[in-house]
From TrEMBL, chains A, B:
Keywords: NAD, Oxidoreductase. PANTHER family: DELTA-1-PYRROLINE-5-CARBOXYLATE DEHYDROGENASE 1, ISOFORM A-RELATED (PTHR42862), DELTA-1-PYRROLINE-5-CARBOXYLATE DEHYDROGENASE 2, ISOFORM A-RELATED (PTHR42862:SF1). It comes from the Bacteria. The gene is paaN. InterPro entries: Ald_DH/histidinol_DH, Ald_DH_C, Ald_DH_N, Aldehyde_DH_dom, PaaN_2, Proline_metab_enzyme. Residues 92-497 form the Aldehyde dehydrogenase domain. This is Phenylacetic acid degradation protein PaaN. Gene3D superfamilies: Aldehyde Dehydrogenase, Chain A, domain 1, Aldehyde Dehydrogenase, Chain A, domain 2. The keyword NAD applies.
């Protein structure tokens, strides 16, 4: 057995570095994003693939307390047969097991818990290739993206949550002396102790598209602050979280803790286990990523819990002018294409003055801009192999349906097309559709069209674009916003507009940074200030609601009895 | 005009010291609690009294945007005629004025806002004697307590909230550079800016018994994090908050800000302005102190806001054994008597094994303990003048009603009696009642009996007392708990029980520290971990929900264009 305290000592340097990075918010990453042999070793890729293949067609080996039977609910967007089944959870048994595991976890203290968490994340990192295959074949992400976003980037976000949880839960000193001066008498003296106590059972509800990246922050923030965690995966993306839970349980048991501190809640689709768990009186923390419908339901109904949701919104681009027209088109077309727009951060509404914009390549009319954006998409996605690596596959029928609906519009600027994949002939791969709208068409563009659907919206002017941006994002939310302008006044106005709308802003991205990507330890994801999310990955608000600081106090023993 | 930034520079040393005290949580106080001439000056007491007297029978001079007419709702528990009226608020006008004032306040930044807050608190401190009279004649607190709890102690809690708000809202750097290494190319470089944005209009709902102490933390936490604040006083205790709002507005205007950042919402009793404001879509933060009924209503209905409530509960004392029996009796009888038990922290349920306890004065049976506690109360309150100074006056008829109801019990251990006051012949002053109950009488003792009503409850044993303590506090809440024992095992079990119950614990208080008193910068007040309160005064959780950190990011300009 390696105790939590010993694990803390083992990973102390990593944790200290992570806390420093979270404080300074400059560039730092603990886990290399390159799936190369020079980084992960000669055998990492093939052995990860073997590990994944060995899971196919079997019951996944993870213990679930009180499980009855199995469920198999996944299908690969790349068309391969998965056939993996999982123990079917009994929600009441999971809650009971979680509660029983809690007291020893409370006693482990924040440092011990952070040590356990760091060990878990390191072991997750060691299985990045296996996880990459699991993410690819449940989400439809192309392999390299599945490796990066589902592996090291998710691990960085996990470690970031650990760092915030550790820093916040140790900010109040565990012991403090208090001596109040008294006129003509000795001071009143007390010794005070502060103990971190978790809020209660935590529930993490995963999504279909980013099962690890979006679940890890809540999982690790709750765990480090003293809470047991029930992990409820999306029925379409169980495997990446099943592997994660398996690793958590293995490390917890080795550390002398109950493995039931982290359990897997797999269900048949439509069984409603998330709602059952979310309204259980002992479930006190909920992290959710997914649809606004269920997120809003959770916020309204899970009254006994603190609820952190990341839902959806109207990610907006304001185009005013540019001194790098090619860079703009290249950057924006890649943002629309990456993972077929199935990122919660993909731009949907592109606001352009109907009179056109000024660029380093001269004035561009609204229609010219649309044609140039379409040409840029064509260039980016012209080669099928490269296109497949950027687009990945369509995750489910809901996305396909919206793509078809948008494609039927009379004002398509760039039509969607199918792409063939050499390796996976049954993969469902589509290029994005871009549709021209007018500012008056708010019924269309104030809905979220999750997937590869974007709108080029003609506005009266850039100030009108900014006003529309503030109004729509305040009402419907957004996770990202970006602006292109050469005017310092417009940029200043866009910054104020983004503060009013409550969304983070990217300015003039024309190079290798994209509005839909955020870096752990530096970029916040979500704000809480608009309806798309209730909190930000990661800041103090995201972690401080997960624990309580409880004090005890007593008089300092008189000196003569101090050594009694 | 003195700008917010200049005010920050003026008070920088005080703010730095406060942030340090909040971090270290040892003894520190910014504002002397002694109402003596040597501290506050020869003329402070008489001039404070003159200022108070000058307010009687008039309309209080505070501007309220959109006010129509006036209201006069206060009566002194000491029987003097107040006759002060206040502008009657129009809730929609207050919200509109608050919103209009917000943008310039956001632009002032955390340091500027903390500077303004520090200036306000210093001016409040300078009017401590005037405020003491205002608190005495609205709450019934005796003068010295009204001075201390309503003045310097409340000011310390205000400064503590400022310190937490300032530290939390400046923890993320305002500017950060980010440089991501690229293989075979220059690093990707971004500059990132973080701006603190308030959540929205804040509402502070005051209580009748501690109008300043309980309102200041929320008021200042919201203000410093960038929010305008509407202060809704209890109709029975308007004056202390009207003076506070007057000072806020004066300082804000002098700092070039809109005074409507802080407004007073006075109403006729029963008008329901608190509920109207609390459910307004623009009201996004609520701080409430008062009854569980309305607190629970707010938590259930003010869905658009973060809600911080401090309600009521079953403050519990577990008596197991002592090596200072006289000290225990002296300390406990004072805790029951101070301000006639009208503190949210006064012990209600005193759990004693029915077989009695071991003490340094020999074994004491349950009945002997009751008789000795009654005798200690008699000794403490035997002299009417000293009794009046400890008890203060009964704040309202609700308290009197409960006192009468409890006094009619067949098992009164210590009966309540009236006390005459020399200075205020019409004051309503009563000593506490103590009633004997059995552990089976849970219907009686699981209700909160706010006021000078306590129960001596016979249990089967100390382990039974601890189990009863955990069960009742988990279900009904508590703000305080204390234990008396000479056994390290019992103390350890009591600490675990307090962690399970989610309440702070005081151990073996026999001297000059009382369970119902907490010191700013060191003792937390409330926990969030039981139903009595949703948060703690003051920790990071109490402040982090009041603001958002919004980022903007852009590429670093290329060197050749940096000075363009």
């Amino acid at each position: 057995m390696t105790t939590p305290t010993e694990l803390y000592e083992t990973h102390r340097e990593l944790l200290d570095r992570a806390v420093k990075a979270a404080r300074e918010r400059d560039y730092w990453s603990a886990f290399p994003e390159s799936p190369s042999k020079s980084v992960y070793g000669e055998d990492a890729a093939p052995s990860g693939e073997r590990a994944f293949t060995a899971l196919l067609g079997k019951t996944f080996p993870v213990e679930v307390p009180g499980a009855v039977g199995t469920v198999a609910t996944e299908r690969s967007p790349y068309g391969i047969e998965l056939g993996i089944s999982y123990p079917k959870a009994d929600p009441l048994a999971l809650v009971a097991a979680a509660r029983a595991a809690t007291p020893a976890w409370r006693a482990a203290g924040p440092y011990g818990r952070a040590g356990v968490a760091a060990e878990i994340i390191k072991r997750i990192n060691a299985r990045s290739f296996e996880l990459a295959h699991a993410v690819q074949h449940t989400t439809g992400q192309a392999f390299v993206m599945a490796f990066q976003a589902g592996g090291p980037h998710a691990q960085d976000r996990a470690l970031e949550a650990v760092a915030y949880a550790l820093a916040a839960s140790t900010r109040m000193p565990a012991d403090a002396g208090w001596a109040k001066p008294q006129r003509g008498a000795d001071p009143l003296r007390l010794e005070k102790t502060t103990t971190v106590v978790g809020r209660g059972v935590a529930l993490v509800i995963g999504c279909n598209t980013f099962p690890t990246w979006n679940s890890y922050p809540g999982l690790f923030a709750s765990l480090v602050t003293g809470n047991p965690v029930i992990v409820k995966p999306h029925p379409g993306a169980v495997l990446p979280l099943a592997i994660t839970v398996q690793i958590c349980r293995e490390v917890l048991a080795e550390a002398g803790q109950s493995p039931d501190l982290v359990t897997l809640a797999a269900e048949e689709p439509g069984e409603g286990i998330a709602a059952t768990l979310a309204t259980h009186p002992d479930v006190r923390i909920i992290d959710f990523t997914g649809s606004s419908d269920f997120g809003n339901w959770l916020e309204a109904n899970a009254r006994q819990a603190v609820v952190y949701t990341e839902k959806s919104g109207l990610n907006t681009v304001i185009v005013d002018s540019t001194d790098d027209y090619k860079g703009l088109l290249r950057n924006l077309s890649f943002s629309l294409s990456l993972y077929s727009g199935q990122m919660c951060t993909t731009p949907q509404n592109i606001l352009v003055p109907r009179d056109g914009i000024e660029t380093d390549a001269g004035h561009k009319s609204f229609d010219e801009f649309g044609a140039d954006l379409s040409a840029a998409l064509g260039k980016l996605l012209g080669d099928p192999k490269r296109a497949a690596g950027t687009l990945g596959a369509i995750v489910n029928d809901g996305v396909l349906g919206r793509l078809t609906e948008a494609g039927a519009s009379p004002s398509v600027v760039h039509p969607s097309a199918g792409v063939a994949d050499e390796q996976y002939p049954h993969a469902t791969i589509r290029t994005p559709v871009v549709v021209r709208l007018d500012a008056a068409d708010d019924k269309t563009y104030t809905r979220e069209w999750f997937g590869p659907v974007s709108f080029l919206i003609a506005t009266d002017s850039t100030p009108a674009s900014l006003a529309l941006f503030v109004e729509t994002v305040r009402a419907h939310g957004a996770l990202t916003a970006s602006v292109y302008s050469t005017s310092p006044d417009v940029l200043a106005a866009a910054r104020e507009a983004a503060l009013d709308a409550g969304v983070h802003l990217s300015e003039n991205l024309t190079g290798g940074v994209f509005v839909n990507q955020t870096a752990a330890f530096s970029d916040l994801h979500g704000t809480g200030a608009n309806p798309a999310a209730t909190a930000s990955l990661t800041d103090d608000y995201y972690v401080t609601g997960r624990f309580f600081a409880l004090q005890s106090r007593h008089h300092v023993p008189a000196p003569e009895s101090a050594d009694a």
